[in-house]
C-alpha cells in the first residue's frame, strides 16, 4: 500500500492557512485537497512533475470543484516572501510539487527499484529454466542445456562478486569533507543516521561535497532549526532537478529567483491595472404629459 509522510505542523503552517484563505475554503478542506493531490501523484506523477497535466486535471486529482486555474495559482502563490508554495514553477517552465522528493520521492524510487528487481528475477528464472527440456534417449539432459545452465551460474556468481566489490567500504565514521566543514562551522557533530541519509542522496544523485556544503550554508543563512535536515531537503530537490555541483545549483537558484520576481511583478501589474470604464446610458425620463392631457 502506498503512503506519504504527513507532518502534524501542516495544519498550522502559514502556507496552508494562506492556501485556505486564497481559495475561500476551510483549513480542513485545504488539508484534504493537498493530501488527495499527493496521493494521486504517487501513482500518476511519481517524480512530482505535473507539467504533463493541465489545471483541470490537477484540480480533479485533488477533488477541488472550483475554478481549476485559481486552484493551481493558489498552490503556486501560497508561499511567503517569494518562497515556493505547495507547487513550484521551475525556470525551465516545468510545474512540480515543491519538496516532493523529501516526502515521496524516496518511496517512488524504492517502488521502481522493487519493480526492476522483480523483472530481473523473472528474467533469470525464465532464462535458467527452459520450459521444454528435451532429454536424450538415456534420460540425460543434453550437453548444450547443461552448458547453458553452467554459464548462467557462472555469470550470476561473477555478477554478484562484481557488485560486492563496487559497494563502498564502511569506514565506521563520517569522513567526507562536508562533515568536517559542518562540525567546524557549528561546533556540532553529525549523527551517523544523518550522515548516512545525506551520503545516500549524494551517491544517488552524484552530488559533490561542494554542493552539500552550499546546502548547509543556505540552511545556516536561513537560520533553520535543524540545518542538516534543511540541507537534506535541498539536496533531495537537487536530485529531482538533476543538479550535481554547487555551480549548477547556484545558477538554478538565480533563474528560479528571477522567474519568481517576474511572476510577482506580473501579479502587481495585474492588480493595479485600471478597471474598464463601462459606458453609462442615461435613463429616459417618463413623459407624463399624456396623462395630464387626459385628465
UniProtKB/TrEMBL annotation:
Compositional bias per record (Polar residues), positions renumbered to this chain: 129-139
Xref: InterPro entries: DnaB/C_C
Positions of the DnaB/C C-terminal domain: 180-251
Region of interest (Disordered), ranges: 111-146, 157-176
Similarity comment: family membership: Belongs to the DnaB/DnaD family.
Annotated protein name in UniProt: DnaB/C C-terminal domain-containing protein
